Amino acid sequence: MAEEGINKRKTEHIRICLTDNVEGVNKSTGLEGISFIHNALPEVNFHDIKLETRFLDKTLQAPFLVSSMTGGSEMAAEINRNLAIAAEERGWAIALGSTRAILEGDKHQDSFLIRKYAPTVPIIANLGAVQLNYGYGADEAQKLVDLTEADSLYLHLNSLQEIIQDEGDLNFEDLLPKIEEVCKQLTVPVGVKEVGFGIDGTVARKLHDAGVAYIDVSGAGGTSWSQVEKLRSKDPLRKAAAEAFNNWGIPTKDCIVSVKNNLHQVPVVASGGMKTGLDAAKAITIGADMIGFARTLLQAATESAEAVNRVMEQIEFELKIAMFGIGVKDLKELKNTNRVEIMGKSLLEG
Amino acid sequence: MAEEGINKRKTEHIRICLTDNVEGVNKSTGLEGISFIHNALPEVNFHDIKLETRFLDKTLQAPFLVSSMTGGSEMAAEINRNLAIAAEERGWAIALGSTRAILEGDKHQDSFLIRKYAPTVPIIANLGAVQLNYGYGADEAQKLVDLTEADSLYLHLNSLQEIIQDEGDLNFEDLLPKIEEVCKQLTVPVGVKEVGFGIDGTVARKLHDAGVAYIDVSGAGGTSWSQVEKLRSKDPLRKAAAEAFNNWGIPTKDCIVSVKNNLHQVPVVASGGMKTGLDAAKAITIGADMIGFARTLLQAATESAEAVNRVMEQIEFELKIAMFGIGVKDLKELKNTNRVEIMGKSLLEG
Amino acid sequence: MAEEGINKRKTEHIRICLTDNVEGVNKSTGLEGISFIHNALPEVNFHDIKLETRFLDKTLQAPFLVSSMTGGSEMAAEINRNLAIAAEERGWAIALGSTRAILEGDKHQDSFLIRKYAPTVPIIANLGAVQLNYGYGADEAQKLVDLTEADSLYLHLNSLQEIIQDEGDLNFEDLLPKIEEVCKQLTVPVGVKEVGFGIDGTVARKLHDAGVAYIDVSGAGGTSWSQVEKLRSKDPLRKAAAEAFNNWGIPTKDCIVSVKNNLHQVPVVASGGMKTGLDAAKAITIGADMIGFARTLLQAATESAEAVNRVMEQIEFELKIAMFGIGVKDLKELKNTNRVEIMGKSLLEG
Amino acid sequence: MAEEGINKRKTEHIRICLTDNVEGVNKSTGLEGISFIHNALPEVNFHDIKLETRFLDKTLQAPFLVSSMTGGSEMAAEINRNLAIAAEERGWAIALGSTRAILEGDKHQDSFLIRKYAPTVPIIANLGAVQLNYGYGADEAQKLVDLTEADSLYLHLNSLQEIIQDEGDLNFEDLLPKIEEVCKQLTVPVGVKEVGFGIDGTVARKLHDAGVAYIDVSGAGGTSWSQVEKLRSKDPLRKAAAEAFNNWGIPTKDCIVSVKNNLHQVPVVASGGMKTGLDAAKAITIGADMIGFARTLLQAATESAEAVNRVMEQIEFELKIAMFGIGVKDLKELKNTNRVEIMGKSLLEG
Ligand SMILES: Cc1cc2nc3c(=O)[nH]c(=O)nc-3n(C[C@H](O)[C@H](O)[C@H](O)COP(=O)(O)O)c2cc1C
Ligand SMILES: Cc1cc2nc3c(=O)[nH]c(=O)nc-3n(C[C@H](O)[C@H](O)[C@H](O)COP(=O)(O)O)c2cc1C
Ligand SMILES: Cc1cc2nc3c(=O)[nH]c(=O)nc-3n(C[C@H](O)[C@H](O)[C@H](O)COP(=O)(O)O)c2cc1C
Ligand SMILES: Cc1cc2nc3c(=O)[nH]c(=O)nc-3n(C[C@H](O)[C@H](O)[C@H](O)COP(=O)(O)O)c2cc1C
């Protein structure tokens, strides 16, 4: 697909994500099956609650990540700038949308260069893993990291998105050894993420064995690419297929549990349908180390850095309320709380 | 927050509770999971059914309590008067809304002085437990009890309400020893209550070990403070947070079961979402000793003592119907009935 | 209550049952949890399917009963006539509404004298069991049977109906020995029925031990007296109580199973919410011997005997279809079929 | 019923199936209880995925079948032509609607002669099994096969349809030995199908023992004949009966599982409510060998062969997407995948 075409598609994606219902049908993250058990006597001072954490060898003010969204257009430049400024202000990590455009000499490649707005927080560059079957390798990956001054690289897995969207790059054969090669060569740690259909423990284990440093599950329950394509596509075949698959994907909650069961020590980023700090609190309770937000930040990102900052503040506030509500004062205590009921089973009452 | 501000807020609370939907979203008391097994041959005379019980060393005509609501304004004075007259007429206990205003020399402090309307039934004064971290202690508590001629004092726990409402008094650290001190010093027994998010058995045990005489669970499923604040607040941060927490809290049914499992002998007041005498019957069957009604009485309380009396009569009548329906003739038999199905498990069929 | 009052009430009941929604709220018979497992190769000739059965020492053309509804007014006379003629034509049993009015010399007592319209089928007279505490005994019962030329007497248990309706005759104490006395004295067998709240196995066993020959469960899921009273009553206390109890009662399915578990040999009449021949088939599969229909026949009964006959034919046709669908050719085979799934458990697959 | 009458009825069926809601009430195939577990790293090339399979000794391009629908009228001739041309183009098998009309010398018997449009793919002729009790036998069956140049014969079982529709041919007694006779005599293999109420394993086993070569379950969850008759019939008795049975039938998913549990080696055709290639993928995962589509193709079949071809392409595309989504590259791998969750139980996580 020509560069022009990709940019048009990406702009349409943003527009549709801003205005339409792009959630899967009868699909949720599964986090509604988790509820905290209120602690009427919290025995903490709300003002002492701490959200600090470490990620990619840096200290963050909160366990939060701006998930990969965009780059490669004028609108994208604006969005990325706003996200980066706010991320720096609030001490969040930030991931870029697919940075492949840089390698292809895109005229809007500046849109990816956000280090000037976010001098201290972790930045994560991004490349479609499938591109390793289409001419890209460790050298190009390193180039992306260098140009964006990133602390890490995301390889994203997006098989279903590719097929529903344009039958573009559909050869996912033998990717694993190539991912391994990139992990070996790169000067920064490599994370792997999905784009909304989820990564389970079996796949995560293979990826970790290949050298992947952390997993971003990006599960189902949030932005659904089959839904986006149903709204965008004009090809009846694809429109109908998108409709048929509106329920596809592993719910984010199931991804987290499955990955944690398989890989106890590897950092897990929970993303896909995260909307509030309460969602974040639940995900942390079942094993997530970091929480990624994509669409939840999109509207504000088209407005201003201040607007993004306000949404971020909101999310942090809600996470703190949840922690206050069960009486824990830092993330470690939150991870280990028994004041939680998972699918009707209370950890407190046993 | 200035006195004027508190009064304004309290009046808004009443107004919102009277006119809007203030129940949590997808949240219920859990009592709908309990159903009685009709006894076609009750073998009792309806007219012999007795509701009498003992509470705070007095005999009540029914196991019912007017839950803490208000005080400290003109409207509150009227409400409290109506509630008190009706409570006396029907032999219910009555609790006051937070009486802290008395200590601060509020001009409407007369609104709390209801002993003249309710000379014989138990009156319970009320203070926010968190105030023990903000300058109040056993002496002030005793003063409240003395001024209101109360038979007992409620310390209410309202962490989530405080945070969603105004980030006022948020230091809940080390409250337990202070509660213990109050229990030790006070001339009357101290009860602890929540305000709608519920107390579980673990917390109840700690409180009881500290000297608390009885527990009012005030669980989720009735008036929801996150909902009230969502409607009241003008601050978008708080409004959104209130929305995110519209599902928070331990359902009243779960509170009762959990507290009873942990504290077999301690009196439990079931409140939070109690609407009918049938709700009361269910709560008693799973362990409650007293049933508290707040919002269910509010509308009538703004009208007249007669209106309150009629709602109370209604509730008593319904409790008797339930007892007749299963063929028991006093509260002891009700507590021990096996004509009940709890979450699909029949105690009768085993 | 004066005779005039009773008649007025009964006429209102009929009118409300004809025009309004009188089913309980979120209440069903439970039969929807039973489904037959279609037999694609039934290996029977539809025209050979037999519905014949024995009841009260007579042969019926189908295992069906016109449940107790009415008597004692002009409208009732018409209804009873139509029901009786159709029952005779189709070989159904027929029960009368409460026949107490006869004893009190009601001017419409002719309305109960249906033997002339139904010379051969079983007729069941009817008296409120609670009347045994209010001056009636075996002699009066025998008189009812004699006057109506009945084959049996129903004693109906209606505690909840009485209390919600008028607090009339509410002394249900020590009824059992009096029921025993009636059973002993009467020249015909005595059955006991509820009126829509259900009889469970424990109560059924007591009744059987007292000499009751068969049990009509009349469970919840059909006509709900709390609903009828909610619509009829003008007294706000009763209206609200009726509302609170709109979910009360043991679902018909649970009654049948419970009674059969306790009394293997005693005939069980399933009534309460029976609408179609498919409902009947399900009830038979779980143990019912006879199926009673009240409100399902009411509309037609106000029209003509032909209209009633058509509804009866409809029900028989549906029962036969169900039997054809699973490939059984008589009621004995239906009772023993394993082509049924009960609450998700298939008897066929084990 | 006269020939004219049958044709009229069949045309009405088509019209109703095209325009009205003809699905059962609260009835589904059960396939919604199956979900695939997305494989984020599929390790296959989408373009290598193969759908080829063998059926009736021929190679098909996809495991798909045009289910029996029609014949015997002008409209039917057009429909069958379009279906046949498209089936040939895409390499699907195709079954005819009941071909009994041929034997009765129907004037539209040409409508069944589709071999000229579909020279290479398997064609299946069709006869109501119950006709074996009404004068037809192996000779007539052979004649149908010969005239239609079919590779196989379907005997369809349609007891419930017959009874709800017209009480026509309702003697299903002793059909089994006659089916056995047909299987023995015929020069081609015999399959048995239902018409939407489903075949379970017990029945399938009997049929297989009698010589039936394959089973088409045609379960509930798709076109419901009780629904069709409810809309079509003018006889109130039948209309009401159809309504009462709107929930009858074994869901397609349950049929497949039950038949496979009983007959491990016998080919199973899954039909009844199959709408997408994703449905097909699910059915294959639980044991189906072929997937049949009736109503899903009907609208297109009234338009043109190209329209049918497009729907078929759609279905194939969706099946491939599902296979890509879990990372399998042929039907054998699909059948054996553990990337599936059945009724909440994950085969992957155990
Ligand atoms: C507008 C938009 C653009 C996106 N672009 C990318 C991308 O270029 N690369 C990528 O890995 N993920 C991309 N994603 C996926 C997100 O990173 C995330 O995995 C997914 O949206 C689920 O999270 P959410 O429910 O919070 O939106 C995009 C998401 C959105 C909403
Ligand atoms: C208008 C209103 C004011 C209240 N004020 C107080 C209060 O001052 N102190 C307190 O402990 N609880 C207060 N409550 C909480 C109630 O005592 C009770 O715990 C809660 O409302 C749940 O019960 P309900 O569902 O019956 O309303 C108030 C409740 C209402 C509706
Ligand atoms: C209009 C009407 C009047 C009834 N009157 C009597 C009665 O006099 N005696 C009695 O035992 N049951 C009476 N019943 C109760 C029925 O016999 C039956 O137990 C109950 O209605 C449940 O059955 P259904 O759901 O088929 O209506 C009456 C029911 C109706 C609808
Ligand atoms: C319009 C129409 C006509 C049908 N005619 C026949 C028929 O003649 N013989 C037969 O065996 N099945 C017939 N069927 C049943 C189908 O073959 C199939 O078993 C059933 O419709 C369920 O599949 P579906 O949900 O995909 O429609 C017909 C179905 C339809 C929709």
UniProtKB/TrEMBL annotation, chains A, B, C, D:
One of its GO terms (molecular function) is NADPH binding. Gene3D superfamilies: Aldolase class I. GO terms for cellular component: cytoplasm. Keywords: Cytoplasm, Flavoprotein, FMN, Isomerase, Isoprene biosynthesis, Magnesium, Metal-binding, NADP. It is found in: Cytoplasm. Substrate binds at R9, K10, S98, T99, R100, Q161. Its cofactor is FMN; Mg(2+); NADPH. Its main location: cytoplasm. FMN binds at S67, S68, M69, T70, S98, N126, K193, S218, T223, G273, M274, K275, A294, R295. It is an enzyme of class 5 (isomerase). SUPFAM superfamilies: FMN-linked oxidoreductases (SSF51395). Homooctamer. Dimer of tetramers. This is Isopentenyl-diphosphate delta-isomerase. It comes from Oceanobacillus limi. The lineage of its organism: Bacteria, Bacillati, Bacillota, Bacilli, Bacillales.
